[in-house]
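User: two proteins, same treatment. go.

Assistant:
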Amino acid sequence: MSSASTESPDLSTFYEYYDNYNDAPKPCSKESVRRFSASFLPVLYSLVFLVGLTGNILVIVVLFKYKRLKSMTDVYLLNLAISDLLFVLSLPFWSYFTVDQWVFGTPWCKIISWIYLVGFYSGIFFIMLMSIDRYLAIVRAVFSLKARTAFHGLITSLVIWLVAFLASVPELVFRESFNEHNYTTCKPRYPGNFTTWKLFSTLEINILGLLIPFIVMTFCYSMIIKTLVHCRNEKKNKAVKMIFVVMIVFFCFWTPYNIVIFLQLLETMGVMRDCQVSTNLDYAFQVTEILGLFHCGLNPVIYFFMGEKFKKYLKMLFKNWHLPGYVCKWCGVHITYHTESTSSFHTQSTGDQDAL
C-alpha cells in the first residue's frame, strides 16, 4: 500500500491508513498495520461482497416481481438496495489493492472511489427518507394520502441521487492513480492547502452522513412515538419497528467510522502527535470501515427476520425458480407455498402499509 501522507478521510479510502506511514513523527513504524491489512482485509471484503450482493439482489427481485413498486416505501427500498450494491461492487477492486497495488489506471481510480462514496451518501439519505415516509404516514396521515405516492417517491429519489452525486464530485476531480515510492497508488491529489481540503472532506462526511440524518430521524421518530402512544395500531407499529431498526443499525455501524476519521483529522492538524495514537487510529480506521461495510448486507437480513411479507415473497420466488428450489430440496429444507395473489399483500391504506 501507499506510504505517503493521508490525502483524504473519505469513505472510499479503506487503504489510506498507510498514508500516515511517513507522516507520523520518526521513528513510527506501521509495518504491523500493513501486515494486518494484507492478511485480513481481502477475506473480509470478499465476505461482504458475497453477502451484500446476494441479499440486495434478492430484495430488488422481490420488489420488481411481487411489490411492483406500488408505493413510496417500495421506491425507497429499491433505491436503498441499489445504494448498498454500489458498495459491494467496488470491493473487488479494493481487495486487490490491499494485497498488491493499483493496476486499474486513473479513470477506474476515479470511478470506483466515486461510486463508493455515492453509495454511502445515497444509502443514509434513503434511510432518512424512509423515516420521513413513516412520519407522514402516521403523524400526517391525511396529508400522506396525496403525498405518499410512487410518483412522488420517484421524484424525491432522483433529487437524492443528484445530491449524492454532487457531494461525491471531489472524488472524480481529485482522485488519481500515480507512482509514489515505486508503488502505484490511488488517492486524491489536492491543489493548494492539503489540511483545508481534508477538513472540508471530513466535515462533509460527518455533517451529511451523520449529523443531518440524525437530527431529521430523531425528530421523525419522536413525533411517531408520541402519536402511537395515543393511537395504537399493530400494523403501524410493525412498519415503524422495521424502519427504526434499519436506522439504528445504520448508526451503530457507521458512527464509529465517523468518529475515527474526525480523530484522524485532529492528527493531521497536529492536535495529536503521539506515534502510538497514530498507529491505534490506523487500526481503528480499518476495523470501523469494515464494520460499516458489513452494514450493506444487513438490510436484507432485517427484512427477512422482521418482515412477514418479505418471507412470503421469498418463498414464492424460490418456489418458482427451479435452481434455488432444487438446492433447498437437496439441503432438506421444505418450502411451503400458498397460492396468494400479489394484490393480497398490498395494503391500500398509506398509514398501514409496511416496509416489506
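Protein 2:
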Amino acid sequence: MGGSVVVCSCVSVCFKYGYRRPSLSALSYSKANLNLSSQCFFSNLTCSHSKALISRLKFVAHTSIGERERESESESESESEKKPLGLVGEDSAVFELGKQKISSWIYFTAILGLVLYILNVAWIDNSTGYGKAFLDAVSTLSDSHEVVMLILILIFAGVHSGLASFRNTGEKLVGERPYRVLFAGMSLPLAVSTVVYFINHRYDGLQLWQVQDALGIHPLLWLSNFISFFFLYPSTFNLLEVAAVDKPKLHLWETGIIRITRHPQMVGQVIWCLAHTVWIGNSVAVAASIGLIAHHLFGVWNGDRRLAIRYGEDFDLVKSRTSVVPFAAILDGRQKLPKDFYKEFIRLPYLTVTALTLGAYFAHPLMQAASLNLHW
C-alpha cells in the first residue's frame, strides 16, 4: 500500500505541476516563427514530461523494490553507530533510555516470570520436578562429594560450551531466538543443580585450612568477590537479548572491561573461586574451583575461536590490542586508554551489577536456607 501511495503522489504531482502553460515571451517573434516555435515547444514539453513521468514511475518502482535493501543498510548503519571512533568492536554497556520500548520490557518481565515458573515446576519442586532425581542419579556415581561436584560441573560445562560451540549451525537451522531458548532451557536447570549442591555440601569435605578468624580476611575476600562480578557478567549487558526479546547476537565488545581483559568472565570466575576457596578452606571448595576455572579456561580458547569465525579480521585487530591476562595489553602499550576511560563504567548496566551484587551478598542466608530445604 505504501508503494501505491507514493506512485499516486508522483502522478498527481506530474499532473498538477507538469503541464503548465508555457511563457508567452515568444510573441516577440514573427507569427510564422511563433507558430513553429509553439508547435516545437508543446511537442518537446509533452515529450519531456512523458519521460519525466516514466522516470519518476521507474524511481518509485525502484524504491519499492529496494525498500528491504535500505532497511538492511539502515540496520548496518545502526550497528556501526555502536562502534566508537577508531574501534572495530562495539561499545559495551551502552544503555540509552530514549531508545527503550516499554513493550519490550513488559515482554521481558513476562518471559522471566514464565521461565522461573517452568523451572520451579519442572526442576526445582521436589514433588513435580526432576532436579532431585538428577542429583540423586549423579550422587550414585561416587561417595565423594568432591567427585560429584566435579561431575556436575563437567555435565554443565559440556552442555553449556557444547551448545555455544554449535551456535552458528544451530541458529541457521532453527533461528536465533529458538536456539537461545534451547540454550537457556538446557543450561539453566543444570546450573541451578550445581549451585545448590555446592551450597548444601560446601562444608562436607576435608578441612585444609581455617582463616575465617584472621584479621581483615573477611573484608579482603568480600571486596574480591564484589570485584569479580564486574568481570563475570559483561555478556548480560543486553538483558533483552538474554531473554530473546531482542534477536540474540554474538557481540565483539571492545570497550569498558574488555580493555582490561578480553575474557572478563574467566577472570571474574577465577577471582570468585579464589575468594570462596580461601574462605571455606576445604576439599569441596577446591574441587569446585578446579572444575569452574578449567571450564572457563576452555571458554577462553572456544570464545576466541567463535569470534574469529564470526568477525575475521576485525577480531584479529581486537585481539592484537587486548589481552587475556588482566592489564597486560595496557602495560605493554598495545591498549591505549582514552582520557575519559572511567566514563565507560558509569553506565546503567554496571550500576545494576553493583546493586545485584550487594543484594546477593545480603541474600546469602536466604539462598542457603532455600537450598537446604530442597534436600539435594
